[in-house]
Write a structure and sequence with these properties.
The chain is built from 12 helices and 5 strands. It has 332 residues and is mostly helical. The chain has 2 domains: 215 residues, HUPs (Rossmann fold); 80 residues, Tyrosyl-Transfer RNA Synthetase. α3 runs parallel beside α12. The two termini are 32 Å apart. Bound molecules: adenosine-5'-tetraphosphate (AQP).
Length: 332
């Protein structure tokens, strides 16, 4: 059976970008068609300045939101990355297979290291090496497919390269994975800065719709979305990125086609209004289910405990064979 792995990073509250670019597809498609694992990848939240209590809180919230969005522990495995030691164990081997140049090419390293330097915080070594951990996350499960938003494809490409290199040098251990992305809204843009992707750790929250925003906040953010100075509603990501983003959101929320929807609207105002309502309705059930689950933390803990146990059982034999293949003496 096909194996799928993907994850979310608890670096902020989950956004509409995380939902449309990844989580919705996991819920609606992936958990039904494969042996799928979905993880709150908390170790990745430690690569930049962090507040320990906040990371813990966000990890629990992210796990609760994944269940609220519809991941079903009877169909898939939901767990927290740091509960399964195999990720860190394999990450070190990946560092021994990857090169310094490969790590430095990563867009996220380039962007976040500049930000860390500018704010005088120093660049953590883990910000350079996290793609090795990400490769380990994927490869530890013999993953075939990694459903992610478009921003993550560079990381999956690296995981592929490392798997091929390892297999070539040390014998066949890893499945070579590939990335898959949704057709619409694979890259949701920031409502205030439609040339940048909507990212959960951006400072200006006005352009970010969080899954737990209440209906009025969602309406306000969408109604205040930056558009260009034209008047015509066209789907043109270059000339009219703000409008194209709204059309993508409306299409993703209603199941429509963004180019066809452009022909339906005569003003930016009515497009914004309909988009706002569509997003409110899209998120309403997730928010309501989250409130129910948050009131029962024992249930979420149980799901995570059982998920980690299952994940460990899958990863351990594969990581053990990678240790043997690379030349490490097995413990007896
Ligand atoms: N704006 C987006 N549009 C489409 N997909 C997106 N994803 C994230 N933002 C968008 C997808 O969501 C999944 C989980 O993302 P992540 O938690 O690994 O973090 P990220 O991609 O680095 O996203 P953020 O929200 O921008 O975090 P920060 O700001 O902390 O770096 C992934 O599949 C991702 O593609």
């Amino acid at each position: 059976m096909k194996r799928i792995f993907s994850g979310v990073k608890p670096t902020g509250h989950l956004t509409l970008g995380n939902y449309l670019g990844a989580v919705r597809q996991w819920v609606e498609v992936d958990q039904h068609r494969a042996d799928a694992l979905f993880s709150v990848v908390d170790l990745h939240a430690l690569t930049v300045e962090h507040d320990p209590a906040r990371v813990r809180r966000l990890s629990r919230q992210a796990a609760t939101l994944l269940l609220a969005a519809g991941l079903d522990p009877q169909l898939c495995t939901v767990f927290v990355q740091s509960h399964v030691d195999e990720h860190a164990r394999l990450s070190y081997l990946m560092e021994c297979v990857a090169t310094d140049g490969e790590m430095r090419r990563m867009i996220q390293y380039k962007e976040k290291s500049v930000r860390a330097r500018d704010t005088g915080q120093g660049v953590r070594l883990s910000l350079l090496t996290y793609p090795a951990l990400m490769a380990a996350d994927i490869l530890a499960y013999g993953t075939h497919e990694v459903p992610v938003g478009e921003d993550q494809t560079q990381h999956v490409e690296l995981a592929r390269d490392l798997a091929v290199r390892f297999n070539h040098r040390y014998g066949h251990v890893f499945t070579v994975p590939k990335a898959t992305s949704p057709v619409v809204a694979a890259r949701v843009m920031d409502l205030q800065d439609p040339m940048s992707k909507m990212g959960k750790s951006h400072e200006n929250q006005a352009g970010i719709v969080y899954l737990l925003d209440d209906a009025d906040t969602v309406r306000r953010k969408v109604m205040r979305a930056v558009t260009d100075s034209g008047r015509e509603v066209v789907h043109d990501r270059e000339a009219s990125p703000g409008i194209a983003n709204l059309l993508d959101l409306l299409a993703a929320a209603t199941g429509g086609n963004p180019i066809e929807l452009a022909g339906v609207y005569e003003s930016y105002g009515s497009l914004k209004k309909d988009t706002a309502e569509a997003v409110v309705e899209l998120l309403r059930p997730v928010r309501e289910r989250h409130a129910e689950l948050a009131a029962d933390p024992g249930h979420v803990d149980k799901v995570l405990r059982e998920g980690a146990e299952r994940a460990r059982g899958m990863a351990r034999p594969l990581v053990d064979s990678a240790y043997r293949a690379i030349g490490l003496l097995p413990a007896v």
